[in-house]
From TrEMBL, chains A, B, C, D, E, F:
Known EC number: 3.5.3.11
Molecular function as annotated in GO: agmatinase activity
Protein name: Agmatinase
Family per similarity comment: Belongs to the arginase family. Agmatinase subfamily.
Gene from which the chain derives: speB
Top-level taxon of the source organism: Bacteria
EC category name: hydrolase
Keywords assigned by UniProt, alphabetized: Hydrolase, Metal-binding
Gene3D superfamilies named in the record: Ureohydrolase domain
Record InterPro entries: Agmatinase-rel, Ureohydrolase, Ureohydrolase_dom_sf, Ureohydrolase_Mn_BS
SUPFAM superfamilies: Arginase/deacetylase
Pfam families: Arginase (PF00491)
Entry keyword annotation includes Transmembrane: no
Length: 284, 284, 284, 284, 284, 284
């Protein structure tokens, strides 16, 4: 008798019950302002992850020693943004309630809002570490409150001042930078300077870690909706991920891979490797 | 003194006042179910139309003899579908009220609903000629009533039975084909058989003509969200357009070019040539 | 509790026990003489099949009414050709022994040899219907007996004269055409002329049906290792598949999709639609 | 002792002395009005021709039985158009003086003018058979007399009325079609209708045969500078080539493959197959 | 009443009269020696610039505060190089005579010669700052004096020794490097070392600043005719631009984006960001 | 009389007799585990090398002063791995026996084994310098001993402990790293640290230098079968090559360019430049 075809991200094949972290995909990109396609990220990452090794020589750890379950993709409705956020929140809540750590693969950055809502419901003292090229602090985008360009502003409405730490930022409207400077978020431009200090200050506060992959320089990550030159290097990002994961990350995501814009496949391979390193760095 | 840079679709450079037809772009694709990117169509078509001649040897007519004004693209909000439809309806209404014929370049197929609303407001006896690979008759798509897969169903809610004529259809859910057969629309599968008779029956009834370019075979039009093999040929389409335009077309659109999926540029060139032939065929 | 992520080809989700046909992928392309990449076909087809409907308006049948199980891909060793053929033969034999019909997704065309061996073991009176642009009748290719350019010659060694019927052939060495003419195979060049007569003659003989997708014209199927202009049309192919499936097909395959060579995705969409029509046409 | 690396188009490996036809490449595209890149055609065709067989089942002939020498590419100066035409004329003259038939691979269509000059010098009664999507009859293009859009007009200045026969034409300025109708050339629009009669009338007149590959439909030949939908099919073109080659072709060329615009490689494969069929059809 | 469709580079929408800087495109690439396509740069940059913000966090300045007019593209004749240079010179002269700063978007690098002629006519003491991967100092290229590989040599003929400062150079014929060393130009290989000193020495001398974007490493800028590994980084380039703009730049250009060779769009995004930073850095 | 078309890598046009180094291509990729296509490397590199200069400003040397012969590509049989290695060994042996230095262009990395065998036969004291992203130390890959993932392990079986020095390694199975640490090879992870010391220790020992180009970061070299982020920079690689070539390199290769995966052409340009610098650095 033959078995059905179970597809998981590289090495994430333990059972749900014993899993400590749970992957899920959120294939949604309806509010993308420039180039869509982030909907394809989770599916393509699973398919291409078999080109990667489970072992990390950076960390000397192996995914085969981790307990991660891949629960597949949500089926989300393009065009009904509020419902999409509810579906994401429900999945993240289930995982959190079962005492596991949700790891979401976007989709565009707006999907983060659904997962942040779930984490905030469980951890009222939630803080956010945000890696990105873009501020994402607009109050609205052409009138829409629910937009990938406004997602951190929406998170701020939930969490309030002093809870959000942004790194790598190098693009935004002038008013967004000014709004951040008024004390609403801690915006660290261009790179990861200040991250060590931030992590020390956060001590054991619960952290939602959202990683917009376009924080990377587009030379190594061209496959994204809004490529923005002048980004951080791959090894810099790995170091920063390890720093964040020394903190108490309770939920996290990576987002904004738009694989069709990089037909060399490198952007997908990079996203897979970042996810492997993230999964190996988390305190499970 | 130097002039600003006015960009129009090939040869569509008369003034608004004297224009008989008015182009506008509706760059929207948030409800696309499979592969997005139709938002880029109007902009790319304007840019690439200079590779085409204004003269048609098929019709022995020249765009330089036509009075068409290109009013550019609407600025639409990705993620707020209802507002998008209102914006489209407003633009189409303005053009209709000024006694001109609106010619819309989508975007995904849902944009048609905004323009149909405007045309229906002016012409309560409106009929729809629909060229497409897909039925677009779903009642909803994953719960969303406003979806490109449901656009003709929404138009039917406005117009009622016996007003919609579909040609070239070769894909859909079984229930959609059955629903059509119950008499709600006249669904002609696979090709343009029956079009001549339809046009004769319609006599001088006001027609909204919506042309989903994926009615073409993907060999000649791969650059679309949901390519569906077994489509009509390019010359077949030109003939069918000429047949429809002998009727009283009061508004029209072409849609679903997703140019990034065809990096040879052929799909864009085809869309431009179809638009030229449409503009030259309309009774202005 | 969340479920693992089962990926199947569109609508092929019944259990193994009740299945009448069983899919499996054979991702192998080591002997490809010109452009490799057919190894990616089965995986990409599963991923992209969700862009297709389960319902066929050509046949008025629906995959949801069929009992097909997708057993995923074999794990094959690039570079050890003989072992690969053994692995394929084993999988096909298991399915045949369980009284089900194996449907293999290549891979390059050599994979057919493994499945033909299995079918021949069960059906000594086996006949082969072969759709292809290429003769595949070489005795060897640069010395290699096991090559995708020699696969039908190898099948002939097993089955003998008068058992193999080739259609659509438009490329090969002069000596291959001559060898066929000597009575070894029935080679019908260029198109499907003679297929109806062939199927009538075969009556209820057991048939292995091997469909090299490059029989299609490269305008509609560019994503293949050796594109060969002058091929058959998509609707011609559907008709021919239906003709073959009126016979007693006991095993079959489609092969030679090399998806990376067609970045528009059309070739993959075509392969998926061909497979859907094949699954709906088989006498199950 | 090892040999140097001689690269020829498929099977064109006889010595110069015994050759009856001589290939050469003219990599030039400086006057291309829309999308350049035809400069890469000859080099890419040589490299990719090994994916093709030397045997033609259409003609039952084999390139290994033909005496064709490939003399490689001219080194042409981008930006100095007149010198380029002189260099081409010199190469074609050498081949003609040696009693052989020159077969040129463009390059953009303007290169034809150099070879026509050479052929006209030897054959004052020269006639031209011209396959193309475009008229190429402009008197000038933005002031330039030497432009690929004016090449047939320039040839006409040399040859005069009644010498040029155009087929497949479907694009041009209105004035170009009118100028042709005034009796300067015999312009057959859209397809090859009238070719049989033309060839009969030409009897044994010396013919320069220039084949702009964009006469093909862009579904099968997207890799060209100015793709123009509505073209002829591949098998139609093969038939037309055979008809022309029954006449007394004294020199010929194929041109306007721009391989980078078709990353599937199909356009290059098509060009190679067309060249093979042309070489096998010529009266050598 | 609807307005015509005015397309400008991001935020360059003031009127001509009040403008301090004036953009224009020079879409020409006929003398490109390797891969053409720079003709598409200006048009594609305008279209894609809407993916960029007007605000620069590097400079804390905003394009909305600058007075820049975009006068669109010149209509240049491919194949008539001398006329092209005259047309460019005329446009640049008009802008200079009106007391504004011309900012040209190439096209291949030869277009610089036309603008340098105009600037030299007004500023006989003109100096040139040249960023490039290539020397561009050939006396001729295959006999052509007007070639993109000879453009700086042509500028030197106008300006004489000691007026030209080259940075980032990492490719050229041995004789070109030797010729520079003889004192004709100040050639700084590989990077921007020496730029600070150069700018200090130039004091308030009038400067023509020509920026061949292939000075960037091809990892971040693959979309160019002759990619040359080992280039400068993006942030290095921004710093160097700011240094140059502290001097008295009287005219400038960026050139050699060939967008079709980078289908990820990153090269175009980089060119747009470089132009934004240049416009924000100029002393207006 | 016209000459045949000899194609060589840039400037490698001396006669075999006088040559000091001899190039040959080994177009084979049948054992590639992830993405094939390295078979195309040597052919594409020859074709594209004309976009490069023969002069190196890094070394102030010129290929026109070197005596290198390009003997073209071997004709290898896809699917018969052992025969392929014999053919490669034979070619390398011929060159070595003639007192020249073989420089092989792969192909996947397994081709190295054939050349190492030849070099080891002549130099029993052979050492290997290995640049790569991957360990290539597997004992087998899915059972195959002859796999590109096992090539260095096979070389070790020949040479024994202490003979192999690996640099830049950042991917592999955990057991491979452990096996290396047991003293079988000197594995230097991530970069070239330790290379200077290694070269000093090797003194004048005979060296086989194998350079898997995927040691480069995929930002600058995306066109390879298994891109692995975090690689070395281009200038770092040039420096390391110069260091190795100060030693006594008796044979060498570069491998794993898979050009179709980088349609910008940058990866090919990089490979050509690396080969130029290697040829200029060797002690000839």
């Amino acid at each position: 008798m033959l078995n059905p075809n179970v597809e998981t991200f590289l090495g994430c094949d333990c059972g749900y019950e014993e899993a400590e972290a749970v992957l899920f995909g959120a294939p949604f990109d309806s509010t993308t302002s420039y180039r869509p396609g982030a909907r394809f990220a989770s599916r393509v990452m699973r398919a291409e992850s078999y080109g990667l090794e489970t072992y990390s020589p950076y960390l000397d750890r192996d995914l085969t020693d981790r307990k991660v379950f891949d629960s597949g993709d949500l089926e989300l409705c393009f065009g009904d943004t509020e419902q999409v956020l509810l579906d994401i929140e429900a999945r993240a809540s289930t995982i959190l309630e079962d005492g596991k750590l949700p790891v979401m693969i976007g989709g565009e950055h707006l999907v983060t809002l659904g997962a942040v809502r779930a984490a905030f419901a469980k951890y009222p003292d939630l803080h956010v570490i945000h890696f990105d090229a873009h501020t994402d602090l607009r109050d609205d985008y052409l009138g829409a409150k629910l937009s990938h360009a406004a997602v951190i502003r929406r998170a701020w409405e939930l969490l309030g001042d002093g809870r959000i730490y942004q790194f790598g930022i190098r693009s935004g409207d002038r008013s967004e930078f000014q709004w951040a400077k008024e004390g609403h978020t801690a915006l660290h431009p261009f790179d990861f300077e200040g991250l060590a200090q931030t992590m020390e200050n956060l001590s054991d506060k619960p952290i939602y870690f959202t990683l917009d992959l376009d924080v990377l320089d587009p030379s190594i990550f061209p496959g994204t909706g809004t490529p923005e030159a002048g980004g951080v290097g791959f090894l810099d990002l790995l170091r920063a991920i390890r720093q964040v994961c020394k903190g108490r990350v309770v939920a996290c995501d990576i987002n904004e891979l738009s694989p069709h814009y990089d037909q060399s496949g490198v952007s997908t391979a990079v996203a897979c490797k970042v996810l492997r390193e993230l999964l190996l760095s988390l305190r499970l």
